[in-house]
């Protein structure tokens, strides 16, 4: 799962697979109607060409040449209406029935491809942040059981930059065949307010597949940072706002949103240090290059348990099982610093519903996998309830979060570049 396959070769493999399946169905049908005389049998090549066109989203009509080879509409009607040709009519109907079966096997009307045969090749899930970060961790944990259920390899591809909008834009413009998916977090709901020239619309250019998990965030610092609890941190940052450095994963990232809430609590703008993901940001934090940051528990629990960073609070209403001794921001007197980072899976907008359902079903099964549940718990999170692993629940939350964060971002006057 380290590198993505070449898109061209992947597409060619799927086309070859469809062709071989088409040949198989053609041979079966020809064998079944082998006793039919040559008249109606000449219609099968036209049906085969129609089946081929069903894979081409640009071909939406049947060429007149195909219809003429089937003796023309009027001649066919005459054949079916003449009593003395009753036996011939039965044989023609057999061809028509066989042809319909062929068209069904080829995925007629299935969004430009054979959705019923999905997946025929490896699937790529784009993570719009760096490898080793929390969204990357969540993706790789669910990708393994999803791959097993779907029967194809799942490749995780990291396309970091611009607060997650580069990778999301790539998937929005990808072929809508179910082989290019996106795992994104809360940043999907903040992008419209942060980026006036955003190249995609989160609600119009994607189909939601289902929610995955809502990860708590923690406020952490390097070991040499002077404060020892959240109250001391707020006081210290207020007094040293021009010196303190606050790391994040770029404008619009969850770590940036959490940082905005801290800045509001402090009442000052801090020196923000953006990275292409919290993975490298946390590395620099441990190394002492930056002072403090917000990050998801999927990234920080091992560092906190290993005593490599100082932990000040968790940003959820209740303490978490993975860090039972870590107080909440509300317990520390900062109830407004509260944020959870939800994650969801997306596909390009025109992806067939049958494909979306197949991926949703695989995701739902993955979130019940005992190993996934255990590893999520070890990282301070848990799968969402089963009724949230649906496109409907996912879309509802996305719309609510856009409405929630847009005024916060507009009030802060923050814009991405």
Radius of gyration: 28 Å
Name the beta content range: 5-15%
- Portion of residues within helices: 40-55%
The name of the CATH topology of the largest domain is D-Maltodextrin-Binding Protein, domain 2
Structural class by SSE content: alpha/beta
State the helix count: 16
CATH superfamily of the largest domain: Bordetella uptake gene, domain 1
Q: Specify the CATH architecture of the largest domain.
A: 3-Layer(aba) Sandwich
Give the averaged pLDDT, no decimals. Answer: 80
CATH class (first level) name of the largest domain:
Alpha Beta
Model regions low in confidence, pLDDT < 50 over at least 5 residues: 19-85, 102-112
């Amino acid at each position: 799962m380290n590198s993505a396959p070449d898109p061209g070769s992947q597409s060619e493999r799927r086309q070859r697979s469809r062709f071989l399946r088409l040949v198989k169905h053609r041979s079966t049908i020809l064998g079944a109607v082998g006793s039919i005389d040559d008249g109606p049998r000449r219609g099968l090549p036209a049906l085969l060409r129609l089946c081929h066109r069903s894979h081409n989203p640009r071909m939406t009509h049947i060429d007149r040449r195909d219809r003429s080879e089937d003796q023309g509409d009027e001649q066919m009607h005459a054949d079916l209406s003449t009593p003395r040709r009753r036996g011939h009519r039965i044989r023609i109907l057999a061809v028509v029935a066989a042809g319909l079966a062929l068209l069904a096997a080829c995925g007629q009307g299935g969004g430009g491809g054979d959705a019923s045969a999905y997946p025929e090749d490896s699937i790529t899930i784009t993570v719009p942040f760096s490898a080793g970060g929390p969204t990357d961790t969540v993706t790789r944990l669910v990708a393994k059981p999803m791959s097993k259920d779907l029967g194809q390899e799942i490749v995780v591809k990291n396309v970091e930059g611009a607060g997650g909008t580069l990778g999301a834009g790539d998937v929005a413009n990808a072929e809508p065949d179910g082989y290019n998916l996106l795992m994104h977090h809360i940043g999907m709901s903040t992008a419209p307010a942060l980026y006036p020239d955003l190249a995609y619309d989160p609600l119009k250019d994607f189909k939601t597949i289902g929610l995955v998990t809502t990860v708590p965030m923690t406020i952490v610092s390097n070991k040499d940072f002077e404060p020892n609890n959240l109250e001391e941190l707020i006081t210290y940052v207020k007094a040293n706002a021009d010196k303190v450095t606050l790391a994040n994963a770029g404008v619009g990232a969850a770590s940036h949103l959490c940082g905005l809430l801290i800045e509001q609590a402090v009442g000052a703008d801090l020196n923000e240090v953006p990275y292409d993901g919290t993975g490298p940001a946390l590395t620099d934090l441990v190394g002492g290059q930056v002072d403090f940051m917000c990050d998801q528990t999927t990234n920080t629990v091992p560092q906190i348990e290993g005593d490599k960073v100082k932990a000040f609070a968790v940003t959820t209403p209740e303490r978490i099982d993975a860090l039972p001794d870590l107080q909440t921001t509300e317990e520390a007197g900062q109830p407004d610093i509260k944020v959870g980072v939800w994650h969801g899976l997306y596909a390009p907008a025109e992806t067939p519903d049958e494909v979306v359902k197949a991926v949703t079903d695989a995701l739902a099964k993955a979130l019940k996998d005992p190993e996934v549940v255990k590893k999520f718990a070890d990282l301070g999170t848990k799968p969402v309830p089963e009724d949230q692993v649906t496109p409907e629940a996912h879309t509802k939350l996305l719309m609510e979060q856009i409405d929630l964060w847009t005024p916060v971002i507009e009030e802060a006057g923050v814009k991405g570049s």
